[in-house]
Each structure stands twice: as C-alpha cells, then as structure tokens.
Amino acid sequence: MDKYAGGFAPINGFETDWNYRLDFKFTQELPGLGLTNKDKFVVTFDVENLLNLLDSEWGRQTKANGTARSIAEALPVNNGDGTFSYEYRPAYGMNIDRISNEVTNYYRSVWRMQLGFKYMF
Q1: Residue 95: CB partners within 8 Å, gap ≥ 6?
Q2: Best CA proximity match to 17, nearest among 76, 59, 63
Q3: Spatial distance between the Cα atoms of 113 and 24, rounded to a whole number of angstroms
Q4: Beta strand segments in the chain, E
Q5: Which of 3, 30, 46, 99 has the highest Cβ tally under 10 A?
Q6: What is the Cα–Cα distance from 79 to 38, expressed in whole angstroms?
Q7: Are the CB atoms for 110 and 32 separated by under 8 Å?
Q8: C-alpha–C-alpha distance, residues 41 and 22, integer Å
Q9: Rounded Cα–Cα distance for residues 119 and 31 (Å)
C-alpha cells in the first residue's frame, strides 16, 4: 500500500485468499419391511465442512468486509486566524499500520454432522 500513498489504490486491485471447503455424504439403502415390492430404508450420514472438523484452522470461510468503518477520521482544527485545517488520525480502535479488511464468516466456517433415516414405499 505504500506505493499508493497520497493517491488512489486501483479498483479490485486486491483479493482475499481462496476459501476451501470439503463436504462428505454417505448414503446406504437397506431392504424395507416387505410391505410392497419397492419399499426400502435409506440411511444418510452428512458432514459439512469436514476440513474444519479435522483442524479448526482449515475450512475457514473468509471474505472482504464491505461494511467496515473508516480507518481514518478528518477532524477540523481552528488555526486561530479564522481559518480551519484538518487533522487526520486513526478512527477509534483502528491501527493504520495494520489494516485488515478480511472477516471470517463463523456460521459457514464450523463443521456440522447430520444423520438421516427415510422409509420409501
């Protein structure tokens, strides 16, 4: 970002890391009760985001934060001679030396398991 100091950074010039996610599904058909000639049981086992189940740092879903607040504020300063100038300082809680516009979607980053049973006739 130093090369853009005093100017503008290009639109869409920066990207976030790739997001990786691996889901697993196991389906097994079992014979039914014999009430009809086509009845059967179906058992399913699903794991969403298997990578995060194996390691909490894997399978994290991140994105650029488009709703982030400003990193700097411009405050008017009275020069004492009837004129004003502006003083720039970091916004509350922000550090201009370390800017990260990437956020983790924790809902999509956790793993989930599901066991399902179905009877088809």
Answers
A1: none
A2: 63
A3: 9
A4: 24-31, 40-48, 62-64, 72-78, 84-90, 102-104, 112-120
A5: 46
A6: 88
A7: no
A8: 27
A9: 10
Q: Domain residues for 47?
A: 13-65+103-121
Give 74-77's long-range contacts (Cβ < 8 A, gap of 24+). none
Residues 95, 87 contacting (CB under 8 angstroms): no
How many domains are contained in the chain? 2
Helices (H) and strands (E) in the chain, counts: 2, 7
> pLDDT, tens digit, for every residue of 9-61?
777 766 667 888 999 999 999 998 888 888 999 999 999 999 999 998 898 88
Q: What is the pTM of this model?
A: 0.58
The C-alpha torsion from 47 through 49 and 52 to 58, rounded to 10°, is 150
The whole-angstrom separation of Cα 72 and Cα 87 is 10
Considering the domain architecture, whether residues 17 and 39 belong to the same structural domain is answered as yes
